[in-house]
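Table S7 (text form). Paired inputs.
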Amino acid sequence: MKIAIIGSGSWATALAKLLTDNQVEIYWWFRNTPAMEHFQQRGHNPTYLSKSFFDLSRIHFSDSLPYVVENADAVLLATPSAYLQQALEVLPTDAFDHKLIISAVKGILPERTELISDYLARVFNLPLERFYTILGPCHAEEVASEKLSYLTFSGLDIDTCKNIAALFETLYLNTRVNHDVIGVQYAAVMKNIYALGAGIAHGLDYGDNFLSVFIANAADEMAGFLKQVTACRELQQMPNYSSSVYLGDLLVTCYSLYSRNRMFGTMIGKGYSVKAAQLELGMVAEGYNASKCIHDLNGKLGAALPIAHSIYQILWENSPADTTLLELEAILN
């Protein structure tokens, strides 16, 4: 199977490493032509995970997205959610016909508060049966260092999930499969919001004791939201929200020093403005846009989200972080 990769950041680079380690042929789209040419000449991404070197014999580089998609059997989406729609605008609406789409996007489209699967169905008429996700507690930096990690592949057809997972599985990457292709997308959105909140608490000098309570309550809040938001979708069975793609991803994103959402939140807790934190981070913290998207979505859904709402107030309504967290303390248990 030939895989097209859309994206050239740290996560796209880590996933490309897994595929090329397994001798999978890839067509890789770069928006940045000089970065692509550097990679072609020197065998590594000059900007992200630059210490990881690649066997270039299995990689076809291009700055033409239509060319990359046309030559592949499956398309791997690995850009930040805020940039995905703009990237795909150059494609005709039939570009994904007869192709599998594999999303590694850990976010929601901010323009319309849409899941990636819903956006692709609306614009490209992609049936959910050909949409799959790669998600879980897995930082790109640790994949690059070949530290043991787990990823969950989700989709309606479990056999196809297993076939896709086999392309990525290595001695340092274990794979699991899951049918909850809608719930895992929302979980990936929610965990970024809570990680940002954990960072805010850390920036305000709360300790590990409080953070453990905060994250335990966030896990419960997320599970309740997932049950409610997926209630209208038919599920083969109720997912285990304590598994790695849900709880595990929440934990690593809240605690890890690699977590850009936690780093972003820490800066907010220390008094940075949103703009200043964005400039200093230099990368996309998905939790920022996600907090507004979930707030807007929940206006219709009505789930109990006091933690997510508090984070929204800090980021979007200029609510003081210290007093907002102080108010939140009273309702945690």
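Next pair, protein 2 of 2.
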Amino acid sequence: MIAAPLGALFADAEVGGLFSAGALTAAMTRVEAALAEAEAEVGVIPAEAGAEIARVLAGLQVDPALLAEGTASAGVPVPALVKALRAALPEAAAEWLHWGATSQDIVDGALVLQFGAALEVLEARLARTIGALKAASERHDELVMAARTRSQVATPVTFGLRAARWAQPLIAEGLALPEVRARMTVQFGGASGAGTAVAPHGPAISAALAARLGLSDGPAWHTDRGAVQALGQWAVRLTAGLGKFAQDLVLMGRTSEASAGEGGGSSTMPQKANPVAAEAVLTLSRLVATLAPALSTPHAEERDGAAWALEWLVLPQMLEATGAALAHAATLAETLRPNAEALRAPLTDGAALAEAASFALAPHMGRAEAQALVKRAARAEEPLVPALRRLTDAPVDWDALVPEAVVPACREAAAAVFARWPG
């Protein structure tokens, strides 16, 4: 999908290979073979023909280059593929190939198989990433740092909780994956979606075809592209979660709070170690989000060649980009290196304890007065807690007002995130 040298950073050979010309041709051939077997099982074509088609096609590899001219002419590779497959079959079996099907049945069926294979790769990488973040969360569950809201220092939290928050949207998409898979059903509707050429056997053929391909059965979806859109939106949400992780790493790198992976050098500044992998995840996340709206194009009437073909160009790119982002993110998660000193630095003046101080004082003077007093103390030239000791004699245990006081609550919040993940 992405040519060298950029491919070294943004491409994914494993996922991209699942959508190669050879992979698509093989998947379409598999669908044609399964269709013949299904129709023979139902009794629509002779059993001998179905068996012979399945036998020949099982060992047949069609050169995708042979389909190029036919694809340019027909706008879809199936007519050229069927011609090549028939040429390899005995005449008695050849006439039964592609019986009652339309090109969209074969292409969509093949793409669903490719999508399923790609999701297996993505699911494994997702589990690896979540597992690494969980390990980091548990390893650093007492490492305090400053939370930032709207880019400003807020309250103390733990690095363990931040790692859990990175994992949280990833866990949600891992849990959503079965539903995404379930929507990718078999495609068999014939010329106009009603299966009229094989009526009344269309539903039986569809069910038998689904069973042979390992898919769920369902109505033809020639122009109902909800399943395709659901897969695309899943990729958008997942890479958005990965992008949040990467963006935080880039920001934390500015103050040396944390690093991960191996930084890349500058062409002119020897001291730099650029966050290449994190930036790549951000780029890939934005690429997926940019491509996604193309999948919302409505499909007109009973088949829309232009809108349908757009999916062939867009969704494989989205899934390959998702695969590359996951590969980078997994490595980043496994090599997280928080800098305890830098993380704690914004907490030294005590300003991040302002919220805790307000709530500690509120029972003694009311919340509004407590907040006003803490605001006044925060503006003093001395650290927050000494200023409060000077400004009020309220019976507050100031020695307990320390950043580490947040550890139990943060540990509990992080555990709640990972409790949802069965891995």
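Residues 26 and 61 are 7 Å apart (CA to CA).
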